[in-house]
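Usage

Read records sequentially. Each one opens with the input sequence:
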Amino acid sequence: MQAGPCVQRRWLRFFAAPDRSRKHGGIPGVVAPGVESELVQEGFTFTEGPVGTADGGLYFSDIRVNRVFHLDAAGKITVARENTNGTNGIALTKEGELLFAEGGGKRISKRGRDGTITTVTDSFEGKPFLSPNDLLVDARGGLYITDPGPRPVVPGRPTYVFYLPAGAKEPIAIDTQVPRPNGLTLTRDGRTLIVDDTLNPFRLRLRRASRRHGQEQAHLRPVARYPVRHRKWRRRHGDRSRRPRLHHNRRPACRCSTLRAATSARSRSARQGANVAFAGPDKRTLYITAREGLYRIKTLAQGPDRLGK
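and closes with the structure output:
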């Protein structure tokens, strides 16, 4: 889900262990009263990286078994790629090619229309990537990439948020200060990038800088931090702040940090959620990757009218 430039007071909330005996009242205009998430399929290991397709389908990864799956519009799930080198995030180009953030392969790869796998980029200033986590295609055809490095976290080890302009081979480092950049998304106007820092209870908001002489002075600049309030914190302290925020029920490492302007959605699954994406013919189905299972929930809110997430 995506955040607009004027994010209002309702945010995406996931509840990994819901009380199934009690139906929630829904959120007006977002989720109808009584609607709960449903299991699409289980038997996976660690699902991640969901991205919707133009025909209403969905791609998602299973990191630990090195596979990418495809859910077609009819509901059938098939293997789209084997030996993915620990692929986490997935993106789609306008030409219909798949892009993969290979954590184990230390590269961004691409599957062409003929099925051939090629390397898009794999280094910065002559040094190989650490362990790419997520990626996103913008309207210009450029790529935003997070590279937090492999676990365990090593104090002092660099981390990166990259931008790869369309046609370039080496990315630009647009941020090196986020302790562990993970998930990322763009606002509807494409001008604000939101990055998930999984070591801290914040989501970073980065906005494009102004242009001068045909080039951007600095590609992005930080403009805000969105605090994350957990359920335990809210029970203890109450809902004191009126500032817009993102709610989670678990540690900050949850990567369900994608937002939507002026709305929020709440879904519930029996497993720990990892990521979300709108899909379906009308983008009114929110898919949730949650460890061994893939879930979905019908929403009144509609996903952004653009390719991918």
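Summary fields computed downstream for this record:
- The longest helix spans residues 231-237.
- The domain at 13-298 is CATH 2.120.10.30 (Neuraminidase).
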